[in-house]
Sequence to fold (1494 residues):
Amino acid sequence: MSDMSSAEQWTHPEEGDLPPATAAKPTKDQVIAGLRATSEGGADLTQLLTPEGERVPSQIFDPYVADIDFEALRGLYKDMVIVRRADREANAMQRQGQLGIWVPLLGQEAAQIGSGRALRPNDMAFPSYREHGVGYARGVSFKEMLGLFRCTSMGEWDYQAHGFHPYTIVIGNQVLNATGYAMGQKFDGKVGDDDGEATIVYFGDGATSQGDVHEGFVWAAVYDAPVVFFCQNNQWAISEPTERQSRLPLYQRARGYGFPGIRVDGNDVLGCLAVTRWALEACRHGNGPVLIEAFTYRMDAHTTTDDPTRYRLSDEVETWKLKDPIERVRVYLTRNGGADASFFEQVEAEADEFAADLREFVFTMEDPPPERIFDNVYAEPSAALDKQREEFLAYLGGFEGGVH
Amino acid sequence: MSDMSSAEQWTHPEEGDLPPATAAKPTKDQVIAGLRATSEGGADLTQLLTPEGERVPSQIFDPYVADIDFEALRGLYKDMVIVRRADREANAMQRQGQLGIWVPLLGQEAAQIGSGRALRPNDMAFPSYREHGVGYARGVSFKEMLGLFRCTSMGEWDYQAHGFHPYTIVIGNQVLNATGYAMGQKFDGKVGDDDGEATIVYFGDGATSQGDVHEGFVWAAVYDAPVVFFCQNNQWAISEPTERQSRLPLYQRARGYGFPGIRVDGNDVLGCLAVTRWALEACRHGNGPVLIEAFTYRMDAHTTTDDPTRYRLSDEVETWKLKDPIERVRVYLTRNGGADASFFEQVEAEADEFAADLREFVFTMEDPPPERIFDNVYAEPSAALDKQREEFLAYLGGFEGGVH
Amino acid sequence: MSATTQPNVDVPASSTVQNLTIGKAINLGLRAAMEKDSKVVVMGEDVGKLGGVFRITDGLQKDFGEQRVLDTPLAESGIIGTAVGLAVRGFRPVCEIQFEGFIFPGFDQINSQVAKLHARTQGRIKVPMVIRVPYGGGIGAVEHHSESPESYFAHLAGVKAVTPSNPVDAYWMIQQAIFSDDPILVFEPKKLYHMGTLKAPVDTAAEPMPLFASKVLRTGTAATLVGYGPTVKLCLEVAEAAAEEGNELEVIDLRALSPMDLDPVFESVRKTGRLIAVSEAPSEASLTSEIAARVQQECFYSLEAPVLRVTAFDTPYPPSKLEEHYLPDLDRVLDAVDRSLEW
Amino acid sequence: MSATTQPNVDVPASSTVQNLTIGKAINLGLRAAMEKDSKVVVMGEDVGKLGGVFRITDGLQKDFGEQRVLDTPLAESGIIGTAVGLAVRGFRPVCEIQFEGFIFPGFDQINSQVAKLHARTQGRIKVPMVIRVPYGGGIGAVEHHSESPESYFAHLAGVKAVTPSNPVDAYWMIQQAIFSDDPILVFEPKKLYHMGTLKAPVDTAAEPMPLFASKVLRTGTAATLVGYGPTVKLCLEVAEAAAEEGNELEVIDLRALSPMDLDPVFESVRKTGRLIAVSEAPSEASLTSEIAARVQQECFYSLEAPVLRVTAFDTPYPPSKLEEHYLPDLDRVLDAVDRSLEW
Ligand SMILES: Cc1ncc(C[n+]2csc(CCOP(=O)(O)OP(=O)(O)O)c2C)c(N)n1
Ligand SMILES: Cc1ncc(C[n+]2csc(CCOP(=O)(O)OP(=O)(O)O)c2C)c(N)n1
Ligand SMILES: [Mg+2]
Ligand SMILES: [Mg+2]
Fold:
């Protein structure tokens, strides 16, 4: 535990063991050790598949992926390729003016597919706004997810059937909502054994600063809520690096609340799957919550309106390219005879098809009718709003055959 | 560190060292170990003076109270007696209808005097609403502090001259305000050596759940703000015991942020003085922030409108009486020849006088004039409000000689 | 049992009629809702053993257990935000905000999730939650304990808001709000919670009136007074006093704050030609502004004087020794009535 | 240099006159304030290297350093709450809220501390801070990025609020707000930030007009239009269109949202007898309600038609493909003008 000795001393002072208050201030480097200073994620990183495609054995986590044979791994590979392809297609379509904005997931495929595939049908996932990969893993059609970015809807998929909550844009809000949902799973008696239900909630490194995320941690700890806090630390909150949010590695935030916190290589789909399964299991059995920090990287801009050249060096991006989440699986499969060239070709073809289908769909998406503005504001009638709607429709009607 | 082994394992999983996710859920007792289950404050408690008046030597903290000779200790004793007496007087005056409400500090005298006396003139203290003892230590007249509770004002003392910010009632708000102030001390170049300035902010156990407190921790850590977070854990947030807010002892919350957290016996004035000085020193030198949990007890009701018999047993109060913050100093002084009976009598007399003076003052306090409603809403004129004020005065004028 | 044999007296428990304060009526309303539907959960600070600082949830935890009545950690965003999650899960959470001044840490969750989830998902997600907010002044309290923030929530599309002024409404509104599939804020006039003089017989077997309807409490022709929550009592007293001077005022209890039911107000103004709106909230960009704006439009040719407003001033709530000057009172409303009549 | 030689062309840097967009004008205003007073600090999410998502703080961190331009952790309550502390310490913090929809986590600090510290301490504590809020729609954005929450802050006593509609105001308002000893929200119409057609010469040596004053932009007699921020441009276009039909409209830019300076509006309405208030915010309990309420009172006998309002609807902001229908536009305002004229 030497890498965290100073923080540990601080937080548990014992005679003789406490730094004098006048001790030299820890250097910035010390302070942020384990953050970006160690782009490898540090000694704390749980990893089952290295960037070079080597399988790292783990006494604890191997059992959680014992069922992942070549076929299953090919499935995860395909998921990631398709999701990346769809992401790039959406990004391109935004450039062509077909989407209002796009929030790329490039680089975060393993974190999203690994964790998303760890979920069971009855589990519930609460995304932020970048979890298209998780949505895909939950069976939500990419087409349905594009409405938000096309600005024709705000995400109207069947959240219950898919166990995938609508996107939440206000940073941190969903962490409390997810915690409440998990409390409900517990109150419903769905927690306590292997068949238990659990909730997972996604948020970014930047989000960890928000009060709502803290309150989610407090509530979950106090109510033993079966919720996995899945923090995708992609190193950036728009232009701000992680050290603007924390002195310590983010997974260690859990320490102050008394539940487990763990850092996993977010570019390792096997690691993400194993660790998330492990955490979900804890939740199902009533030992939740758990914090997972998936150490990953946002390879593209924050959104299509962002210009990352203003705040980060391409060097950094290049370094992270070497840790690509898809490439390592390809290498592993190839080297170990888990897949041949025809498989990879086939996946590419499927991905192309997926993207083409998406593109065609987007190009023909219709705008919603104007009166939708008034639809479903309330579940039950509001006389005042009904009147506004009527007036609006009458006004619109006035243009009929006119210039409008 | 055996008492925290499970939490430690959780927050720093290493191979072979991690509990299987299916491990039996920790019992409630385990979870709250170190909270109320250990009314002694647990092994983590820093204490220089036991409830029995025994001086406990401390290699680290003794230097911080090396100057506290008998005279100084008598001073602290007197502070506590006067503050308690004033508190009881105010409580009584509320019962007599002279105050709208009173927020008793009974039992928290050592935490407040010990920490308050640790401050230097240039330091700034941000109280919540119960820190009358700190205000007293900062030289604010009790009379000035009573305006808030008489409902004639909201606290208009010269906060800058006294280094004592106005009370804050919305739980947690002041933690961010204090952090910002401390950032300002640093930006002003007043931090970095022994002459540095520092800020201290007071809040309760319940407050630790608020998002603002978390955000204060995040900001202070990120900006190395010279702020001491002084949490008076008086075991109750109105009717809710500390386990409604946390699984772990509150001082351990600091662990997740990477700054020191320490638990001190909040009923030990010497311990509070030493630990606060230690923490302030860290801040002055630029090594802030620090979290102090003063483990104490709210001996009276939450406020005069509260009825604690509805939610806690008198047993508990009785146990805590044995840990009285004033009594242990009296015993220590007496046993070690630091004070004789005449000293104690004299302090009593002074306290009586203090209280009588306060009482007389309160009974003659005048209500503010009605137009004060409009005073100082803004620093610069608002034409709209000036008009309301004029109309109001004209309206009031209409009653002159009338029934109003 | 007839009203004549037991006027204003506690009626036997077996009866469906009970003589209740507003506070007790809400308590019984909550209890009735919890009995009816096990998905109703009450949550907030100190709502358990203590029964809330106003005792409105008194006895509920004892009878329904800690899983139905939750003493939550101390954070309002947490209360609202987890309630949203419970609602998504199928519960009907009833959140208590201890005092209106402490609703603001939860404002973001109310604005961004509570008010918008239904529209965002086009009805796939319902948020059938209630936020109970003790509000209003006149209780000699310290800062943040006497405000009237209802206008913020009227401006916020996606939530609804109601406020009772009497025990019958108190008993029914809370239940109607709980069983509505929309998120509803119930603003509870805290000054009136335990006011014995407002005790009234509540028939728990009766048919409640619609939740989003205002109500004419007294008819008159000289001018119309509209109030809500804590100012309804005041309006009635003003009408009483005006009647002694020969002016019969019409008094309307708004009841619903958002959406407001202003048709009865329009109708009344068409008859009286004069309207005074009374509220404890500051006036700027408030509910009373909205009332004035809509009445001047709907009743343009009927108004014989402009709509007048008697409200708190546009200042922070003052130290409560001054609140009698800050809040609308009999004299100030009468003064406005006079000004209206003399316009 | 005369206006005729360089009409609408970038003027040399040495000159005191520069041709600026609103966004650039705010950027230069911030720079001027920071140069003038070292206690001015800019803080917010991404305001440093990135220069803010709208580039309004572009270049400031480079020139003034990380201690004057703070990339803060991601939490709005933290931004506002620490700014309060900095203000108490003697700084003049200028907080940027990235988009108006994200001001709500900071609402509690604004309500409970920013707005109240001065009154609470009877002036012992000044809170000379500025909160910059890009607001308004029409940019095809996703949820929470197009709203108009200004009415909440008009209802909140203790803070002031202003909004520029043109580069000259943009340049001066930000500076006046920074050097005011009151906390002021500056609502910045984001749609107009970089609109080239709004570029205008800004004379940095000129005397600015008072901060809390509205301004008549066009005189007319048929009816009065009042708008603010993003709707001022619209109002001027409407007046143009109406003029073609022979109706000369008076157009007033509110500029100050709280307190409003309505005297010029009253004066105008006494002349025209008709008023249409135009805002992108929902109408219920809003600024336009307040305008209507006060005008009907002050100009009761002058009004020939009720005050009409053209606003967003009382619904959450819709998916932005629908925003053209949601927001006031030329046709809707013209329609209201017609209705007013025909009343
Ligand atoms: C409350 C709030 N404040 C600001 C924003 C604007 N914003 C959108 S994303 C973002 C950065 C989030 O960073 P992080 O949490 O690391 O997630 P990432 O985008 O990297 O996945 C910001 C500031 C927001 N959506 N909500
Ligand atoms: C935001 C907010 N919510 C609720 C309250 C009401 N309230 C006042 S004191 C209190 C309990 C505070 O407990 P703690 O933080 O432990 O401080 P203590 O009163 O014990 O000193 C509550 C809930 C408040 N003042 N502010
Ligand atoms: Mg990020
Ligand atoms: Mg406490």
Q: What stands out?
A: The beta strands of chain B are 124-126, 199-204, 227-233, 236-237, 240-241, 261-265, 290-295. Residues 1-38 of chain B have pLDDT under 50 and may be disordered. DSSP finds 14 helices and seven strands in chain B.
